[in-house]
Amino acid sequence: MKVSFFETARYCAPQALPSEWPVPSGAYDREAGARAYRDMIARLEYVEELGFDWVSVSEHHYSPRILTPSPIVSASFIAAHLKKIKIALLGPIVPQSNPVRVAEEIAMLDTLAQGRLVVGLLRGTTNEYLTYDLNPAEARERTDEGMELILKAWTEPQPFGWQGRHFQYRTISIWPRPLQEPHPPTYALGTSRESCDFAARNHLGCGVSYGSFEAVGRATRYYREQCARYGWEPTPEQIIYRANMLLAETDEEAEALLRQQPNQRPFTMRAGVSEALNKLDARNIAGEARAPIVSGALPTTFIGSADTVVEQVRRCRDVVGAGVLDLSLYPPGSSDLEALMRALELFGAKVLPRIRDI
Amino acid sequence: MSAPGADFREGYVEADGFRVRYLEAGHGAPLVHLHGAGGLRLTPAHDLLARRFRVVAFEMPGFGLSGENTKTRSMAELASTMARAAQALGLDTFNLMGTSFGGTTALWLALQAPERVPALVLEAPAAIRPEGSEPPSGSPEEMARRLYAHPERLPALPAVDPAVRAKTQALVQRLRGPGRDPDLEERLRKLPTPTLVLFGTLDGVIPPAMGRIYKDLIPGCHLVFVYDAGHAIGAERPQAFAEVVGDFVERHEAFVVSRAETVIHP
Questions:
Q1: Contact at 8 Å (CB) between A320 and A216?
Q2: What is each CA distance from B254 to A39, A286, A324, B122, B162, in whole angstroms?
Q3: Measuring CA to CA, how many Å separate A315 from each of A212, A298, A299, B138?
Q4: In a domain? residue B160
């Protein structure tokens, strides 16, 4: 099993924040922001030392919870500070990006980082579509087309034009090309049938997140079935599972930590906005409909002592088939950094060495 | 919406002893079309192009309603017959568009008479093919699965008379040339004609990767991928196809310069 640390540049707000998303920019504290990024690098140096295989970053907007609106910027900064670890760019949100720009930036960063890049392409969570005025009803089509264009821009050796539905270019011919051939290991992220189909058709990996082993396992099973239909079989490393982990000395202690977690999302949208988004967006797990907006807190699927967690990882491998775990360690999304460092230490000492062979 | 080609009128010209049928509509600069191995079938793209050009779609001798063609010996000969057919219509110069098999014919015509062809458009051309690639054949359903990325979105193809199919297949096999023709490819290096090569990203007859070979060989070649289209691009994505073809025929290499307006609220 390979292990990735999901880095969110945790921001410690000096005072209580409004609870509505988008969170007003005026509530941002510049010094706290600068500290968040300094701490991020210090933390990741430790993560690298512990022997994590990857550090992952994501794209989220208008929120103190994850301070990385441009994952390519965070990934570049991290790549410059760390020497060995792979950088997993598990953004960018394709439907609201210029696909040619994404292809160029990733190629450039893969080369700057001497081939240490891993890439995930995704549709983004529903609320993100407010950021750049994207019609949620068009997001799926724009994602599929954008991903295909990014792959083409990386691999086509001759200048070419693109006559799409949502994107049109007359001349594309990127420099530099990615250092890794033909391009960095790439994943389509998401549990939807469309995302799994795209990954299977284009020989990409598949990344799933946060659901129970059984729920995301339905998506990865569907993905593997589709790969077989296209005549190939993904390696374990081509399936990423992103999840929350609450690790403590004992199971009881971990359960107690879970009870302290808020069971609501830290920032919520106004009801009229959520409803309007829900009407235009549609989500599914391997074809089975699910609600576009999850209102509760994201579930924690690894919880307990080191022994318990190791067994859960084993079960995850069997049920989900994942060969890469992308982990948010205690406390997911919170700003208690000392607790996070203790969890990292415990994970590095008691879990990491025991899940390598799973 | 009327059936594709409702505004086209039928005519005949004589060329090299053949009575050549054609369908014509529109005004302005002439755009001659040479069809693929399946014969002449108008698509919504023809209608869109006829709003900007005088579109003349020929039925090449031996296809469709014409008699069996046992006379034409090579693609080069077919090209010269089609050049004479255009001449018989009074077209000294004409923009030329060829589809698949007809793309090879169009290439030969442009090589033979570059001064007569201001711009050349090749829709999924068949002049360069990987080994073992065969033109689509079989029932209308089988044909649709080969030609289209999304056959379920399009009207069913008409059934083909077995006699027509037999005479056409023999002609295509005789004329289409090898998958790689060193003589033709050498000549393409000197083709002076501005050329647009289009491939659907989901072409199931000829791999879209063949496009880069044209781009590599022809000095003034532009390659455009039409997203989510199969082999019959004009049938599957008519607006996307006609927009880029029209822009290229009018502006040649300057078509890379965008004229799209992005002002939202002036």
A1: yes
A2: 51, 45, 48, 18, 46
A3: 11, 20, 17, 50
A4: yes
Give the closest residue to B175 by CA, choosing from B253, B75, B56, B29.
B75
CATH number of the domain that residue B139 is part of: 3.40.50.1820
> How far is residue A147's CA from residue A143's CA, in Å, rounded to a whole number?
6
Minimum Cα–Cα distance from B228: chain A residue: A164
* pLDDT tens-digit series, residues A207-217: 999 999 999 99
Q: What is the ipTM of this complex?
A: 0.96
Test B228 with A145 for CB contact under 8 angstroms. yes
Interface contact flag, A148 B223, Cβ < 8 Å: no
Say which residues have a Cβ less than 8 Å from residue B2's Cβ, sequence separation at least 6. none
Q: Spell out a b/e string for A119-151, using b for 16 or more CB atoms within 10 Å of the CB, else e.
A: bbbbbbbbbbbbbeebebeebbebbbbbbbbbb
Q: Indicate the SS3 state at residue B156.
A: coil
- CB-CB neighbours of B260 under 10 Å: 5
d(CA A82, CA A44): 8
DSSP H helices in B89-161: 101-112, 140-147
Domain span including residue B172: 9-254
Q: Would you report the helix, strand and coil content of chain B in percent, each value rounded to 5? A: 40, 20, 45
Q: Which helix (H) or strand (E) holds A324?
A: strand A324-329
Q: How many domains does chain B have?
A: 1
Q: Tell me if the bond preceding B219 is cis, omega within 30° of 0.
A: no
Q: Could B211 and A145 be called an inter-chain contact, meaning their C-beta atoms sit closer than 8 Å?
A: no
Mean pLDDT for chain A overall: 94
Q: Which helix (H) or strand (E) holds B56?
A: strand B54-59
- Does any domain span residue B100? yes
Strand partners, A121: A188
Residue B87 placed within a domain? yes
Which residue on chain B is closest to A158 by alpha carbon? B212
Q: Please, what is the angle between helix A139-155 and helix A99-112, to 10°? A: 50
CA atoms of B191 and B145, how far apart (whole Å): 34
Pick the CATH number of A2-355 from 3.20.20.30, 3.40.190.10, 2.40.30.10, 1.10.472.20: 3.20.20.30
- pLDDT tens digit at each of 266 positions of chain B: 578 999 999 999 999 999 999 999 999 999 999 999 999 999 999 999 999 999 999 999 999 989 999 999 999 999 999 999 999 999 999 999 999 999 999 999 999 999 999 999 999 999 999 998 888 888 899 999 999 999 999 999 988 889 999 999 999 999 999 999 999 999 999 999 999 999 999 999 999 999 999 999 999 999 999 999 999 999 999 999 999 999 999 999 999 999 999 999 99
CA dihedral for A325, A330, A332, A333, sign (positive or negative): negative
**Cβ contacts of B258 on chain A, cutoff 8 Å:** 170
Partner residue facing A171 (CB), from B212, B225, B256? B256
CB pairs under 8 A between A and B: 58
Q: Which residues on chain A are in Cβ contact (under 8 Å) with B211?
A: 158, 160
CB B199 within 8 A of CB B228: no
